[in-house]
Design goal:
Strand content: 15-25%
Radius of gyration: 18 Å
Distance between the termini: 48 Å
Mean pLDDT: 87
Oligomer: single chain
Largest sheet: 2 strands, antiparallel
Shape: elongated
Structural class: alpha+beta
Low-confidence stretches: none
Number of helices: 2
Number of strands: 4
Length: 69
């Protein structure tokens, strides 16, 4: 029983939640982030799309695009 409990703890603690990836327009100057690459808010983007984690985008001070609500 003790071995099973330890093994279960090791297995469950090794999983990390999957980080949501989002899109931003270019490496600098973006104000919003987008869940979908085809978001309507990205139609005016003239730079290359950059894929970053949602927490990283929020760390840059970006907010979720209004079309994504």
């Amino acid at each position: 029983m003790k071995y099973t409990t330890i093994l279960l703890f090791i297995v469950l603690s090794s999983f990390r939640p999957v980080e949501t990836k989002v899109y931003i327009c270019g490496p600098t100057g973006a104000k919003k982030y987008h869940y979908k690459e085809t978001c309507r808010g990205l139609t005016a983007c003239r730079h290359e799309l950059t894929k970053v984690s949602e927490s990283q985008a929020q760390g840059y001070g970006l907010t979720l695009c209004g079309w994504e609500d």
